[in-house]
Write a structure and sequence with these properties.
Bound molecules: zinc ion
Order of helices and strands: HHEHHHHHHHHHHEH
Radius of gyration: 19 Å
Shape: globular
Number of helices: 13
Strand order of the largest sheet: 1-2
Strand content: under 5%
Length: 309
């Protein structure tokens, strides 16, 4: 059904009308303008605290939900909690879990190659950060990339109507605290969340060190790991993407993993996948763990599936 619009070069590519492009750009720009205006419209401690809480809650939904669960199936959970992860994830305004997982699985299959839609190596840092989103050329996805998720009707529903939670958040904010609450709860929190999570597509392939000689440009960066609840250990992740844990060693802080462990202790999630002993040893005894130069080609074959299945 979606293939009719697809580019022959990059599966899933669609060309939007000028009106659709302007609406997309307008919504993105308006959220940024709202974030900038927030301190001048109202500055209440409650709104700031809720904006910060929404940032961390939704960052977890992106990192543990969209990324580690839906894209990589790195742990198991119930169908109800799976839907909760998906629903909260949609409030991040990064489309639905099916689109997100499909695009991300392609990123791992084609890492930094011509078919990777957000590679700094291919089209520069700005394009990898936001350009590919604003271009509207990658708004669709191939369901065959997410067959394991597509079979759930509730995931198809929430992916199709992914703006429901966003509208709900904005309406609740307005009813509770008027315009200042909308600007803080949604605009400030979402702009921070966007650029925090976008750094993993852009800066995490440019800035940091390479503990593992993977076939891409991925880096480990502790600053990005703090901002993104552990996603900044991106070179680790490209080496062993099936793992629910991205900070492989005790000193690599990975807040998403700690929360997942807490959720596992009360039975909400289970079967968290861990890096193998061989991978851990490989990273510990790498000849040049602080190497920031050009990536070398690993002798490790590229995994056939982003989910490791
Ligand atoms: Zn990557
Ligand atoms: Zn990944």
């Amino acid at each position: 059904m979606m293939r009719a619009h697809m580019s022959p070069s990059i599966p899933g590519t669609v060309i939007r009308s000028p009106l659709e492009r302007w609406l997309n750009l307008g919504g993105f720009a308006a959220t940024h303008v709202g974030a900038c205006l927030a301190p001048f419209v109202g500055f209440r401690a409650r709104d700031v605290a809720i904006a910060i809480a929404l940032y961390w809650l939704r960052m977890f939904a992106v990192t543990a939900g969209y990324h580690r669960y839906f894209s990589h199936r790195s742990f198991k959970t119930s169908r109800v909690f799976q839907f909760i992860l998906a629903f909260v994830g949609t409030s991040c305004t990064q489309k639905g879990p099916l689109w997100w997982a499909a695009i991300h699985r392609r990123h791992h299959r084609e890492s930094d190659g011509p078919l990777d839609v957000h590679s700094p190596r291919q089209r520069g840092l700005f394009y990898s950060h936001v350009g590919w989103i604003l271009e509207c050329a990658h708004d669709d996805y191939d369901p065959s990339d997410v067959k394991d998720l597509y079979r759930y009707p509730e995931l198809r529903f929430i992916s199709r109507f992914h703006m429901l939670s966003v509208v709900l958040l904005i309406v609740v904010a307005f009813l509770v605290g008027g315009l200042p609450a909308v600007l803080w709860w949604y605009c400030v929190s979402t702009v921070a969340l966007w650029h925090g999570s976008f750094t993993i597509n852009s800066l995490s392939h440019v800035w940091g060190h390479r503990r593992f000689a993977t076939r891409d440009d991925s880096r480990n960066n502790w600053v990005l790991a703090l901002v993104t609840m552990g996603e900044g250990w991106h070179n680790n992740h490209h080496r062993f993407m099936q793992s629910a844990r991205q900070g492989f060693y005790w000193w690599q802080v990975d807040a998403s993993y700690y929360v997942l462990r807490a959720l596992a202790s009360i039975g909400l999630v289970w079967d968290l996948r861990e890096p193998t002993a061989r991978v851990l040893a490989e990273g510990l005894y790498a000849p040049s763990p602080w190497n920031t130069g050009s990536p070398s080609v690993s002798s490790t074959p590229r995994p056939s599936s982003p989910t490791g299945s």
